[in-house]
Design a protein that fits this description.
By secondary structure, the chain is α+β, with helices and mostly antiparallel strands. Helices cover 50% and strands 15% of the residues.
Length: 101
């Protein structure tokens, strides 16, 4: 099983420490895609993390599934509805413009 860097951060580790351990080859990781500015997106193998971190992950993960999405995921809904509101306002403004033939 692989975890995102953000999921490992939620377990109490710093981003700098995570990337340092990956660069040193202490923790196994794999590249899963390309993010912003061409930077690679990496996921860490749960089995390569220290036992204490693996225990924390098991405590936070419900049996047979992934943990609940982090709080930041829930804000996506409000962001999308906010974007939809702006899109509706723009569409209404464009409808009011006179057509030039």
């Amino acid at each position: 099983m692989f975890l995102t860097v953000e999921q490992v951060i939620e377990l109490g580790l710093s981003r700098a420490n995570i990337y340092r351990k990956m660069a040193a080859g202490e923790w196994a990781s794999r590249e899963v895609g390309t993010g912003r500015n061409g930077k690679s997106i990496r996921m860490l193998a749960l089995a390569s993390l220290p036992e204490e971190i693996q225990r924390r992950w098991l405590e936070l993960t419900p049996p047979g599934g992934d943990p609940a999405p982090p709080p930041e995921k829930s804000t996506e809904v409000s962001a999308n509805s906010h974007a939809t509101t702006h899109e509706s306002a723009l569409t209404a403004a464009l409808a009011r413009l006179p057509l030039v033939a």
